[in-house]
Amino acid sequence: EPEVTQTPSHQVTQMGQEVILRCVPISNHLYFYWYRQILGQKVEFLVSFYNNEISEKSEIFDDQFSVERPDGSNFTLKIRSTKLEDSAMYFCASSEAGGPPTYNEQFFGPGTRLTVL
Amino acid sequence: AQKITQTQPGMFVQEKEAVTLDCTYDTSDQSYGLFWYKQPSSGEMIFLIYQGSYDEQNATEGRYSLNFQKARKSTNLVISASQLGDSAMYFCAMREGTGGNQGGKLIFGQGTELSVKP
Known about the structure:
The complex is a heterodimer of chains A (about 120) and B (about 120). Chain A has about 120 residues and is mainly β. Chain A has strands at about 5, 10-15, 20-25, 30-35, 45-50, 55, 65-70, 75-80, 90-95, 105-110, 110-115. Chain B is an all-beta fold. In chain B, strands 2, 5, 6, 10, 11 and 12 form a six-stranded mixed beta sheet that branches. In chain B, strands 3-9-8-7 form a four-stranded antiparallel beta sheet, with no helix packed on it. A two-stranded antiparallel ribbon of chain B has the order 1-4. Helices cover about 0% and strands about 50% of the residues of chain B. The interface of A and B includes residues 50, 95, 103 and 105 of A.
Protein backbone atom coordinates (compact mmCIF):
# COMPACT_ATOMS: atom_id res chain seq x y z
CA GLU A 1 0.00 0.00 0.00
CA PRO A 2 1.44 3.41 -0.90
CA GLU A 3 2.50 5.57 2.01
CA VAL A 4 4.01 8.92 2.83
CA THR A 5 7.58 8.68 4.06
CA GLN A 6 9.58 11.19 6.06
CA THR A 7 13.25 11.55 6.88
CA PRO A 8 14.86 11.79 9.31
CA SER A 9 12.69 10.27 12.01
CA HIS A 10 14.47 12.36 14.63
CA GLN A 11 16.56 15.49 14.18
CA VAL A 12 18.49 17.22 16.93
CA THR A 13 19.85 20.69 16.20
CA GLN A 14 21.28 23.71 17.93
CA MET A 15 19.26 26.89 18.21
CA GLY A 16 19.93 29.15 15.24
CA GLN A 17 20.80 26.33 12.87
CA GLU A 18 18.95 25.56 9.67
CA VAL A 19 17.11 22.28 9.28
CA ILE A 20 15.49 20.63 6.31
CA LEU A 21 12.81 18.03 6.86
CA ARG A 22 12.12 15.76 3.95
CA CYS A 23 8.97 14.04 2.78
CA VAL A 24 8.07 11.80 -0.11
CA PRO A 25 4.31 12.06 -0.71
CA ILE A 26 2.27 9.35 -2.36
CA SER A 27 3.14 9.41 -6.03
CA ASN A 28 -0.21 10.32 -7.64
CA HIS A 29 -1.17 12.88 -5.02
CA LEU A 30 -1.43 16.53 -5.91
CA TYR A 31 -1.79 18.32 -2.58
CA PHE A 32 0.89 18.39 0.07
CA TYR A 33 0.79 19.63 3.63
CA TRP A 34 2.97 20.20 6.66
CA TYR A 35 1.58 20.08 10.17
CA ARG A 36 3.31 20.24 13.51
CA GLN A 37 2.48 18.90 16.95
CA ILE A 38 4.17 20.28 20.01
CA LEU A 39 4.48 17.56 22.64
CA GLY A 40 1.16 16.93 24.33
CA GLN A 41 -0.74 19.39 22.18
CA LYS A 42 -2.99 19.25 19.17
CA VAL A 43 -1.87 18.98 15.57
CA GLU A 44 -1.53 22.39 13.91
CA PHE A 45 -1.60 23.23 10.21
CA LEU A 46 1.47 24.96 8.82
CA VAL A 47 1.17 25.09 5.05
CA SER A 48 -0.43 23.51 2.01
CA PHE A 49 1.16 23.25 -1.41
CA TYR A 50 -0.32 22.65 -4.85
CA ASN A 51 0.94 23.08 -8.37
CA ASN A 52 4.37 24.16 -7.17
CA GLU A 53 3.16 26.97 -5.00
CA ILE A 54 1.81 27.58 -1.52
CA SER A 55 -1.99 27.33 -1.39
CA GLU A 56 -2.45 28.43 2.17
CA LYS A 57 -0.28 29.04 5.21
CA SER A 58 -0.96 29.59 8.87
CA GLU A 59 0.28 32.33 11.19
CA ILE A 60 2.91 29.91 12.44
CA PHE A 61 4.45 29.70 8.97
CA ASP A 62 6.48 32.90 9.12
CA ASP A 63 9.53 33.99 7.16
CA GLN A 64 11.68 31.42 8.95
CA PHE A 65 9.82 28.64 7.16
CA SER A 66 9.85 27.68 3.52
CA VAL A 67 8.69 24.72 1.46
CA GLU A 68 9.92 23.33 -1.77
CA ARG A 69 9.28 20.51 -4.18
CA PRO A 70 12.76 20.25 -5.66
CA ASP A 71 11.96 17.31 -7.89
CA GLY A 72 9.04 15.11 -8.82
CA SER A 73 9.01 13.17 -5.58
CA ASN A 74 10.36 15.13 -2.61
CA PHE A 75 8.61 17.81 -0.59
CA THR A 76 10.74 19.68 1.95
CA LEU A 77 10.20 21.99 4.89
CA LYS A 78 13.08 24.28 5.76
CA ILE A 79 13.44 26.19 9.00
CA ARG A 80 16.14 28.80 8.49
CA SER A 81 17.10 29.66 12.06
CA THR A 82 15.58 27.27 14.55
CA LYS A 83 14.24 28.42 17.89
CA LEU A 84 13.62 26.40 21.03
CA GLU A 85 9.87 26.65 20.43
CA ASP A 86 10.25 24.93 17.05
CA SER A 87 10.77 21.65 18.92
CA ALA A 88 7.86 19.50 17.82
CA MET A 89 6.79 16.56 15.71
CA TYR A 90 6.44 17.62 12.10
CA PHE A 91 4.04 15.67 9.92
CA CYS A 92 3.89 15.70 6.17
CA ALA A 93 0.62 14.72 4.51
CA SER A 94 -0.66 14.36 0.99
CA SER A 95 -4.01 13.95 -0.72
CA GLU A 96 -5.33 13.39 -4.20
CA ALA A 97 -7.36 16.59 -4.17
CA GLY A 98 -8.01 19.55 -1.95
CA GLY A 99 -11.25 19.35 -0.09
CA PRO A 100 -14.96 18.72 0.19
CA PRO A 101 -17.46 17.91 -1.08
CA THR A 102 -15.50 15.02 -2.51
CA TYR A 103 -13.97 12.86 0.16
CA ASN A 104 -10.21 13.11 0.02
CA GLU A 105 -8.31 11.60 2.85
CA GLN A 106 -5.07 13.16 3.88
CA PHE A 107 -2.44 10.48 4.34
CA PHE A 108 0.06 11.33 7.03
CA GLY A 109 3.70 10.35 7.19
CA PRO A 110 5.22 8.94 10.39
CA GLY A 111 6.59 12.34 11.40
CA THR A 112 9.98 13.87 12.14
CA ARG A 113 10.67 14.71 15.75
CA LEU A 114 12.66 17.93 15.82
CA THR A 115 14.53 18.78 19.00
CA VAL A 116 16.12 22.22 19.22
CA LEU A 117 18.72 22.59 21.98
CA ALA B 1 -13.32 30.61 18.97
CA GLN B 2 -12.42 26.95 18.81
CA LYS B 3 -13.36 25.35 15.53
CA ILE B 4 -13.13 21.81 16.91
CA THR B 5 -13.86 21.01 20.52
CA GLN B 6 -13.14 17.72 22.22
CA THR B 7 -14.28 18.09 25.81
CA GLN B 8 -12.95 14.80 27.15
CA PRO B 9 -9.20 14.98 27.80
CA GLY B 10 -9.20 11.36 28.91
CA MET B 11 -11.55 8.41 28.84
CA PHE B 12 -11.45 4.91 30.27
CA VAL B 13 -13.33 1.93 28.90
CA GLN B 14 -13.42 -1.72 29.80
CA GLU B 15 -12.21 -4.14 27.16
CA LYS B 16 -15.06 -5.36 24.91
CA GLU B 17 -17.28 -2.47 25.89
CA ALA B 18 -18.32 0.37 23.57
CA VAL B 19 -17.12 3.93 24.08
CA THR B 20 -18.16 7.28 22.63
CA LEU B 21 -15.71 10.11 22.09
CA ASP B 22 -17.28 13.53 21.72
CA CYS B 23 -16.51 16.18 19.12
CA THR B 24 -18.30 19.40 18.28
CA TYR B 25 -17.36 21.78 15.53
CA ASP B 26 -18.04 25.30 14.43
CA THR B 27 -18.30 26.39 10.83
CA SER B 28 -20.46 28.61 8.68
CA ASP B 29 -19.67 26.61 5.56
CA GLN B 30 -22.31 24.34 4.07
CA SER B 31 -19.74 21.98 2.64
CA TYR B 32 -17.21 20.44 4.97
CA GLY B 33 -15.69 17.12 5.97
CA LEU B 34 -15.13 15.63 9.39
CA PHE B 35 -12.34 13.19 10.14
CA TRP B 36 -11.15 11.09 13.04
CA TYR B 37 -7.54 10.10 13.47
CA LYS B 38 -5.92 7.77 15.97
CA GLN B 39 -2.47 8.53 17.35
CA PRO B 40 -0.90 5.66 19.31
CA SER B 41 2.06 6.21 21.60
CA SER B 42 4.40 5.62 18.65
CA GLY B 43 3.23 8.96 17.26
CA GLU B 44 1.90 8.25 13.79
CA MET B 45 -1.48 9.60 12.67
CA ILE B 46 -3.83 6.87 11.51
CA PHE B 47 -6.98 7.81 9.60
CA LEU B 48 -10.07 6.10 10.98
CA ILE B 49 -13.27 7.44 9.47
CA TYR B 50 -14.77 10.31 7.49
CA GLN B 51 -18.16 12.04 7.41
CA GLY B 52 -19.14 14.53 4.74
CA SER B 53 -21.52 17.34 5.56
CA TYR B 54 -23.90 16.19 2.83
CA ASP B 55 -23.85 12.54 3.84
CA GLU B 56 -27.25 11.49 5.06
CA GLN B 57 -26.10 8.26 6.62
CA ASN B 58 -23.80 8.02 9.60
CA ALA B 59 -20.39 6.76 8.51
CA THR B 60 -19.26 3.32 9.63
CA GLU B 61 -15.92 1.61 9.22
CA GLY B 62 -15.58 -1.74 10.95
CA ARG B 63 -15.77 -1.15 14.70
CA TYR B 64 -15.83 2.61 14.20
CA SER B 65 -18.98 4.58 13.57
CA LEU B 66 -19.98 8.20 13.77
CA ASN B 67 -23.02 9.70 15.43
CA PHE B 68 -23.32 12.72 13.15
CA GLN B 69 -25.82 15.34 14.30
CA LYS B 70 -25.57 18.17 11.84
CA ALA B 71 -27.98 20.53 13.58
CA ARG B 72 -26.00 20.18 16.80
CA LYS B 73 -22.70 20.35 14.92
CA SER B 74 -21.41 17.23 16.56
CA THR B 75 -19.73 14.12 15.24
CA ASN B 76 -19.09 11.65 18.01
CA LEU B 77 -16.94 8.61 17.40
CA VAL B 78 -18.27 5.29 18.67
CA ILE B 79 -15.82 2.44 19.07
CA SER B 80 -17.56 -0.87 19.62
CA ALA B 81 -16.04 -3.90 21.33
CA SER B 82 -12.97 -2.03 22.58
CA GLN B 83 -9.63 -3.76 22.37
CA LEU B 84 -6.43 -3.12 24.29
CA GLY B 85 -4.88 -1.88 21.05
CA ASP B 86 -7.43 0.92 20.91
CA SER B 87 -5.60 2.71 23.71
CA ALA B 88 -4.37 5.88 22.02
CA MET B 89 -5.05 9.57 21.50
CA TYR B 90 -7.99 10.27 19.21
CA PHE B 91 -8.28 13.49 17.25
CA CYS B 92 -11.31 14.93 15.56
CA ALA B 93 -10.61 17.19 12.58
CA MET B 94 -12.54 19.30 10.09
CA ARG B 95 -11.87 20.44 6.59
CA GLU B 96 -14.04 23.34 5.51
CA GLY B 97 -15.35 23.92 2.03
CA THR B 98 -12.66 25.23 -0.25
CA GLY B 99 -12.87 27.08 -3.49
CA GLY B 100 -10.48 26.51 -6.30
CA ASN B 101 -7.19 25.00 -5.23
CA GLN B 102 -7.00 26.27 -1.71
CA GLY B 103 -5.70 23.02 -0.36
CA GLY B 104 -8.21 21.92 2.26
CA LYS B 105 -6.24 22.11 5.52
CA LEU B 106 -7.37 20.03 8.47
CA ILE B 107 -8.25 21.77 11.73
CA PHE B 108 -7.75 19.48 14.71
CA GLY B 109 -9.25 19.32 18.16
CA GLN B 110 -7.23 18.89 21.33
CA GLY B 111 -7.71 15.15 21.36
CA THR B 112 -9.07 12.57 23.78
CA GLU B 113 -6.77 10.01 25.33
CA LEU B 114 -8.52 6.67 25.49
CA SER B 115 -7.35 3.95 27.84
CA VAL B 116 -8.78 0.47 27.48
CA LYS B 117 -8.70 -1.60 30.67
CA PRO B 118 -8.35 -5.38 30.55
